[in-house]
Design goal:
dGTPase, HD/PDEase_dom, 19 helices, 62% helix, HD_domain, hydrolase, Hypothetical protein af1432, Deoxyguanosinetriphosphate triphosphohydrolase-like protein, mainly alpha
Length: 379
């Protein structure tokens, strides 16, 4: 399909940090997507926690399945809006490459460990992965992705880190956080698709785990109305089939809401180009009613699922694993793989090394270094 004038056109890309010839059969954004899929960091996502630790069950979401779901949702919204589907897919598949083992628990622990060394931001770490840490090509570090893909990966960034990025790459991906401008519509879309995916699959995993019940979630208006409609249309439905049907209907409603609300915002703003979008307020959005309903659902999941005693118990142990790994590697860098052990920026090397671990590798390393097993490992 043809792109809208406000979509990112690969032929007008701001390019790569290291110039390369154009691919003969793909666009540059398609090449970015393919490089991401073939990266080591992408494969590791299959053994990285979403909410439930990797050893707790084979059917819970991981960072990999989450990223695939975000990509599917983003493409479903991009097409009717005339946006670049290949770019949204590349951003969606790469947005969590820098996440630590053990999900947000691991990220919080590593950020605390790095408090005196510049901190740790998982979005910035995802950029580090694609810019520097992947080692696949003879002429450059990282994956050498296009500016537009890298910009979308860097969803959040502190002022201090944005200024550091700007010093290293004037006018680059850190600039918008200094100027307080917007990223591309494709990047905005991936941010919202990420939220939609979280809400849907955390309901699914939460009910499957037994930590929350279908009846509890049905009391939340955004989910409850779709659950009730599914019951009216299919009176025989119950259990898992009812859960899946209600989630499916909720996902469809959220997708159509974003398409309608964002389409209206685009008609009002009438941006003439992809660059014109950057000076406008955010365009890709929910309707106000759906934004409020989504916030209610997020509050419910935060209170009843993410703060559930069973989750917080494993969270505490996971953070202890990260803290003790950091302390041991900082004191004895030789315990890391040679490429990390040889680096002069030892604290950042330790953070890079730990952030790249899967859940089960982190657990095995912790047991090797301390002789203690805090969580059951997956063999």
């Amino acid at each position: 399909m043809s792109l809208a004038p406000f979509a990112c056109d690969p032929a007008a890309s701001r390019g790569r940090r290291h110039p390369e010839p154009l691919p003969p059969t793909r666009t540059d954004f398609q090449r970015d997507r393919d490089r991401i899929v073939h990266s080591t960091a992408f494969r590791r996502l299959v053994y990285k926690t979403q909410v439930f630790l990797n050893h707790e069950g084979d059917l819970f979401r991981t960072r990999l399945t989450h990223s695939i779901e975000v990509a599917q949702l983003a493409r479903s919204i991009a097409r009717p809006l005339g946006l670049n589907e290949d770019l949204v897919e590349a951003i969606a598949l790469a947005h969590d490459l820098g996440h630590t083992p053990f999900g947000h628990a691991g990220q919080d622990a590593l950020n605390a460990c790095m408090a005196g060394h510049g901190g740790f931001e998982h979005n910035l770490q995802s950029l580090r992965v694609v810019d520097a840490l992947e080692e696949r090509y003879p002429e450059f570090d990282g994956l050498n992705l296009c500016f537009e893909t890298r910009e979308g990966i860097l969803k959040h960034c502190s002022c201090a880190n944005a200024e550091r990025l700007e010093r290293d790459e004037p006018g680059g991906v850190g600039r918008r956080f200094i100027d307080r401008t917007q990223p591309s519509l494709e990047a905005q879309l991936c941010n919202l698709a990420d939220e939609i995916a979280y809400n849907a699959h955390d309901i699914d995993d939460g009910v499957r785990s037994g930590l929350i019940t279908l009846e509890q979630v049905a009391e939340v208006p955004l989910f409850g109305r779709h659950c009730e409609q599914a019951r009216r249309d299919h009176p025989h439905l119950q259990g898992r089939r009812l859960l899946y049907e209600a989630i499916r209907r909720m996902l469809s409603a959220l997708v159509y809401d974003v398409i309608a609300a964002s389409g209206s915002a685009l008609r009002r703003a009438q941006p003439a180009s992809a660059d014109a979008v950057r000076a406008l307020p955010p365009i890709v959005c929910f309707s106000p009613e759906t934004r409020n309903a989504s916030a209610q659902l997020k509050s419910f999941l935060f209170r009843d699922l993410y703060r559930h005693p069973r989750v917080t118990e494993t969270t505490g142990q996971a953070q202890e694993v990260v803290r003790e790994l950091f302390e041991r590697y900082l004191a004895q860098p030789s315990e890391m793989q040679a490429g990390f052990a040889a680096r002069s920026d030892t604290p950042r090397a330790v953070a890079d090394y730990i952030a790249g671990m899967t859940d089960r590798y982190a657990l095995r390393e912790h047991e090797r270094l301390t002789g203690r097993r805090l969580l059951a490992t997956t063999q």
